[in-house]
Amino acid sequence: MTSLDSVFDKDGVRLTVDDAVATVTLTNPAKRNAQSPALWRALAEAGRALPGSVRVVVLRGEGKSFSAGLDRQAFAPEGFDGEPSFIDMARGSEADLDATIAEYQEAFTWWRRNDIVSIAAVQGHAIGAGFQLALACDLRIVAEDVQFAMRETSLGLVPDLTGTHPLVNLVGYARALEICATGRFVHAEEAERTGLANLVVPVDQLDAAGHDLAAALLAAPRDAVVETKALLSGAHSRTYEEQRTAERAAQGRRLRDLAGLAD
Fold first, then answer.
1. DSSP code at position 67
2. Which residues of the chain have pLDDT under 70?
3. In what order do the strands lie in the sheet with 21-26?
4. Which of these, 75, 147, 157, 246, is most buried using a 10 Å CB contact count?
5. Is 263 helix (H, G, I), strand (E, B) or coil?
6. CB 236 within 8 A of CB 169
7. For the chain, how far is it from start to end, CA to CA, in angstroms?
């Protein structure tokens, strides 16, 4: 893959690759990068299209907003062209509805694969599906004007695009419930203080900060980062003793590899 190779650009999503760093860009600033099923399919395709050489993925949005969430056309009786409306989905069987939502979720699940580290560079509005997309990534750098909000509950819905798990892990149950149930905005200072954001920077420095973090992540050997990410991402589901065992096994693999004794 050559430097800055454009893999694809469609349905509001552009994927480019520069050696070990891929950039996924939401490309509909006129609609504040509002999301649709077509965009979700393109995001899922981006994950499948990543070359094996990619170690870091930066997710960004063009314009003043990262993503203002679900395109309100989804709630119209006609829905999107060629797509079932939400009303039609609700009239279908439970199995069909579950399968459709599961398909939509695929756009949000691949960002935490152990073989990559994902960074969301977030400015302006990140609302509903936009908030959940930022939460799907491993790390978040935010601009000083960021406005996170989980508005699904105020619409009579629930957050269903994989955002509830990382949100609770980051800020705790009580704060996550309060954020979701009230739909209030979370601004940059609170985001950094509560762990939603790793770093807050001026708006005009957001892209540079993303590039700097990507470079820092590439400084360590890939296999060590992969093993460390697997250890940390699984820690919440293991007991203390199970985590100790996982650490020993991972370190054994690393030592054997460094000694040229890998299986």
1. B
2. 1-4, 262-263
3. 5-10, 13-18, 21-26, 56-61, 117-122, 139-143, 199-201
4. 147
5. coil
6. yes
7. 29
